[in-house]
Structure formats: C-alpha cells, structure tokens
Amino acid sequence: MNHSDKVAADKSALGFEFQDLVFVEKLIRLSPSQTLGLEKFDDIHVATATEDGEIEDLVLIQVKHSVDPGNVTDRDIDLWKTLANWLGIIPGLPSHRKLTLQLYTNKTPNDQPFVSLLKAPRKNLQTIIKHVRDTREAVEAAEALKKLGDAANPIAKHVRIVATATDEELKKLFENFEFHSDNTSVLRRIADRLLEVAIPASCLVDARQHVIGAFKESKFSTIVQGQKVVIGFDDFHKTMGFDRIVRTARAEIADFARFVDIYYHFQRDDTLSFNDSRFRVQLEDIGVDNEEIIDRGVEMMLSERFIEDLRVAGTFTSTQNNRLENDAVSTWKILHNKAHRGKNYGDGDDNSHKETSLNCYDKTMQTALTADNVSLPINLSCGKFMKLSNQPRIGWRKDWRKKFEK
Q1: Long-range contacts of 247-250 (CB under 8 A, 24+ apart)
Q2: Residue pLDDT, tens place only, 40-96
Q3: pTM over 0.70
Q4: 376 burial type by CB count under 10 A (0-12 exposed, 13-18 middle, 19+ buried)
Q5: Do residues 237 and 383 both lie within one domain?
Q6: Is residue 45 located within the same domain as residue 132?
Q7: Which end of the chain has fewer surrounding CB within 10 Å, N or C?
Q8: 290 and 181 in a common domain
Q9: Residue 102: phi, psi to the nearest 5?
Q10: Looking at the structure, do residues 186 and 43 belong to the same domain, yes or no?
Q11: Looking at the structure, do residues 236 and 293 belong to the same domain, yes or no?
Q12: How far apart are CA 59 and CA 104, in angstroms?
C-alpha cells in the first residue's frame, strides 16, 4: 500500500468511527417509541412506531465526515453521492407515514445556487429539478471535452443517476431532504447529551467512554451473529446498561475535603470588613473581635463559592444544599436551646446574657456538619453557620430574633 492509499484508508476508517459516534449521540436521545439502526436502510435510521407497531416516522441519515470540513458546494461529491444513494434506497423502504432524508455532515452548506435551494427544498422543487438537469448537461459537456486518459469527474456518475430519475422520484427525494450540518466535535456533542441527563461535569469523560464502549461491544456481538444493528430504548437503557452508567456517574460524592485547600490558599484582601453584614452585627454584639469576624466572613464567602462550584459540576445539587442548611439550623437550635434553657435575663444582666451567647456561638463553631454521611471540614461548617446568621435564620442571643431579624 503506497502513502496515498494509506491516507485514503485512514480517512475511510475515521469516517466509520464518526458514524459510530453519531449513532451513540442519537442513542442517548432515543425515546421509548423509537429504534435506531446502523447500516440497515441507510448509514443510520431512526424509526418511530405507533401503538399498533406501524412506522410513523422514518428518518434516513447519511453520515459524511471530512477531515478538512470546509463547505458543502454545488459540486460536492458527498452531496451528489448521497442523493444518488437515496434514489436507490427509497423504493425498498418499509411502509411509513412520514420520511425524512437527512444529510449529516461536519461541513457547512455554502450559498451557491443549488445548495441554497436545498436549504428550503419544499419551496423550490421545480427549480431544484431544473438545476439537476442543467448540472448533468454541464458536467457531461465538460467530460466530452476531455482527452483520452483524463480522469473522469468523480461526481459525473452520481449526477447522471439523479438527473435520469423521473420528476416524481425527484420530488419525493427533495421534498423530504434536510441538511444537518454541525462542525462541533461529536465527542463534545455526546458530552452535551450526557449533561442533559444530569451526568456531573466531572464524570462526563468516564461516562462517555463507558457509553461508547457499551455500544461497540453490542455492535460487535450483533454483527458476529450475522444480524443488523437495530437498538431500541430498552435495549440501550437496560441491556447495554445506559441506566447503570447514569446511576454510577450521578453517585459521585462531592469532594468536600478540597475546601480546606481553597480556604488556606485564599489571599485575603486587607479591605475585607463585611461591615454591612448581619452576621457581623450579631458577633460584635456578643463580643467577638474584628479579626475573628473577618475569619468567619471569609469562611462564609468561600463556602458559598465552593458549594456553587459543586452545584455547577453536578456533584451537589441545590436540593442537597437546602437540606444541609436545614440540618444546620436544627443542629444550632439544639445548642441554642441548651445554652439558654431556664435563663431569664433582666435589664442588668446583659453581661451574663452575652457570656452565654458567646458560649453558644463557640459550641456551634466547633460543630462539624455532615452531607451525604460525609463530615464537612470545620471551616466549611462555620461558613454555613455564618450564612444562616447573615440571613438571619440563626443567632446567639436568646432574643436574637427580636433584635436582629428586622
């Protein structure tokens, strides 16, 4: 095999890999009424069945991949080869109520006349048919001028097949035609589909590899048995294990311990004061000094950023965060009730009130919260308590609600 043959073989292999990845992308979006087939009616087909088992919608997908994507032009060989293939495929299709013929390519349709017409084929049927006939005449005229031994135009045979079809055949072809152009990485698109089913961002690569691997294994086993690859919703979700892959990915436990590194690597701004914060007013009232108040403020600020990062990554949801904060309120309430139980502070007993309140605060700051049975770092727990104090949902004095809630 010479170098040019090897390059052609590599491109062909890449095209098949691209086709498989497009198939996986569509598997993830498969609905219970659909089946997805590989190289049965076309490169890929999607059949949507009615309740009585008849095919409601049939989508044929020709998958064309180019190493150097560029544009789909009027003389694009992938375009003409696809049209010619469909003319041969359509007569043998099973009964269906609606047909869609989709050219799936990583190239972008340009604005040349034929391609522009195909962007809205149903509106331009007669003009498209005329253009097909004119293209055949132009291509054959150019071929006639070539010298003996000159290479033939690679689209010539495909143009001839399309142009010699009847008007009715061409109408059926073009009224169902659609471009599907997307030059985004197919691996990126698969990752996006996985995000849509709530796979955490931190687990996307592993989940994608598992899904692709499950498909490749299923495809191999099916072909070895001499069967066509046709996969239904239950086949994908149960037999191929997609539901298990999703459950495993979603079960990832948030790495709360990482907060310690974030907290101790944070470069504090000398201007930090939290002067307008309710938690500061509460702490000043019971005698906490300014340096400790800044510490508590930093913990509050960083804990909120950290929890939001976990939420965006998909490893700690808003529901879990609300549950954590409600548990924190319950934990504080027990400590608060115990600290102030049986004590009635008079007008001249404020020092005693402050001392008890400060003790309640200290006990709270020493309490590590838990989330999903994981003990949180103490600084993260303090940050959560400070957020609740800042709202304020908790306080340290016995009369904190009356004094600070408004």
Answers
A1: 249/194, 249/199, 249/200, 249/203, 249/206, 249/207, 250/198, 250/199, 250/200, 250/203, 250/314
A2: 998 999 999 988 888 999 999 999 888 777 889 999 999 999 999 999 999 999 999
A3: no
A4: buried
A5: no
A6: yes
A7: C
A8: no
A9: -115, 120
A10: yes
A11: no
A12: 11
